[in-house]
Amino acid sequence: MPVETSLRTATGTLSEVEGTGPLAVPQGVDPGFELDISATELLAFHEAKGEAGEIISTPVRLNGEIRELLLYGTGDGSATALRKTGSALVRRAKGKDVLAIQVPEGDLEAFTEGALLAAYDFTLKTSGKKPVGEIVLVGGSAGGAGGTGGTAGAGEIVGRAAVLARDLTNTTSNDKCPAWLADRATEAAERSGLTVRVRDEAELAREGFGGLIAVGSGSPRPPRLIELSHAPEGATRHVVLVGKGITFDTGGISLKPSDGMKTMKTDMAGGAVVIAVMSTLRDLGVPLRVTGLIASAENSFSGSAMRPGDVITHFGGVTSEVLNTDAEGRLVLADALAYADATLDPDMIVDIATLTGAAKVALGLRHGALFTPDDALAAALTRSGEQSDELLWRLPLVEDYRVAIESKVADVANIEQRGFGGGSIMAALFLQRFVGDRTWAHLDVAGPARGPEGSTGYGVRLLINWLQALQK
What we know:
This protein is an alpha/beta fold. Helix content is 33%, strand content 22%. β11 and β12 form a beta hairpin. α2 packs parallel to α3 and α7 packs antiparallel against α11. It starts with 5 loop residues before the first strand and ends with a helix.
């Protein structure tokens, strides 16, 4: 569900913030009102270390009421530490009406991001504690939390975008289908000043998007190609973001085992990230032209589903042989990438997808896999990942492996046939076939996109950071 927690900045002192919830002050900072035991003595008694997210609690009497005072640590004061700190404070205040925070020195944007992400909770339960009702940042920047005039404002924009990606991804697939995702993208476009075009199944068939048609052919809920555009006046560079939007993945005729399907409502995480990133560009003042493409289908099985051995003609005419219907994400991405190359004339293309279990095996849950032949683009994306705490690890596009995805009956096969392994590399090599000579990167985020509590929104902050750095 969207975050219901409101956020605002305020001048003055903590004691002026109305409500019954906690008051939070950085360790070592005077809270501005009397304590029965000094803050210094409290920290010494609890042997506080000042680590990011460390919280020492004590009751205080303020204006005739008992409130909770939280003395919080900020670690080394880095963006990473402040994200962790903001998150810890908001989790501590769950169920309260207000959390008043004396803001720390340092990156208020990162602190705000962490706070809002911690306020997100996707649940369909009918009872339980709700997130804190309001966060008040005392001493925050003058721009306010609702605009771009201050770092709290930018933090709120980015934080709420990451929440949007989480929400879209966590929505269950009895509600979520390609048409539903297109409707949500259209709503985001209307709120964010984007132009939008949605191609339905008839248009996709007529224009030759064979991958989307094939993958969606087994479901009664047909595919969509969603195109979002941010085109500010005077933009001289054009970036295309492409997201995988498989709203549920059974594996098709190459059926997944039951356990393998339990998280497949999240197989459109890449598409959700693209929608979320696009929704921020106007408010963050990004001067680049950016197009977002979300290739969305439901991979199901029926008498009309694609079969192993079928040959697909993708947008632009390249053919692929389907050797495994569970390698479907690359088939829909191929259409979108080919369309971007042939029609949109971008300077750069970056795609993001929960594409292969092999990437998760290789890198676990902390890093996304990065593939690109361009060293400068690899360095820029890696740097943005480090700054946003959404880490990437570059893997090779091994030329000697291309022989493994050769097909006897088509231009390329959708899985490798030689027993080489390297499944995430093979998928990236397949995608590279469809980008022409464009500067391109592929992010395989099958590991970090999903966490124990569902979608993480991984990739939103990374790509926003990268786009903002491109304009400099």
